[in-house]
């Protein structure tokens, strides 16, 4: 089975409590770990949609990544907007984790399913946005294309993992969804939205793509089953 969860916001320093978003975040790390062990098996895959750790440097994130390494299943991780520790793919892979893979312009195959993704970026009104944000948005679009191209049509299904929702402020689809349509993507998961941000969640079948929001507080800190193979 394939599960997904985003925005773990692990913090081995204890300096970034998440209960500013509500009391449901109290002891959220322990709750995620306990729930994970209840539903995920060793042969399952878990997709993590960014914002993994509050660490600022790669070596500081190691402890949080080891917690994930020790949990059941194979894990595939993308970068979130708060993953400041994220470095080059080579440095990430130098940790030589046995159960963790990182997506950055690449892809992975799990059975008949291809896993691709990138961080994404907030939707932009090009009439009002600054040049820097437009550049980042376009770069993330290109990274999604690179990730999709790396699959080389070798799978029956494709899952896109994003951090930012691929929707405009009015909840219409944005350019990320246009790319997904062009590549016949089947499923898209995303995170980023917390607390009052849940009002911007869009889920269900749109243009033959199934969308899931997997921000951990939106799914009650329980990994969500995305696909049963």
UniProtKB/TrEMBL annotation:
Pfam families: Metallophos. Signal peptide: none annotated. One of its GO terms (molecular function) is hydrolase activity. It comes from the Bacteria. InterPro entries: Calcineurin-like_PHP (IPR004843), Metallo-depent_PP-like (IPR029052), Metallophosphoesterase_sf (IPR051158), Pesterase_CT488 (IPR014578). Residues 2-195 form the Calcineurin-like phosphoesterase domain. This is Serine/threonine protein phosphatase.
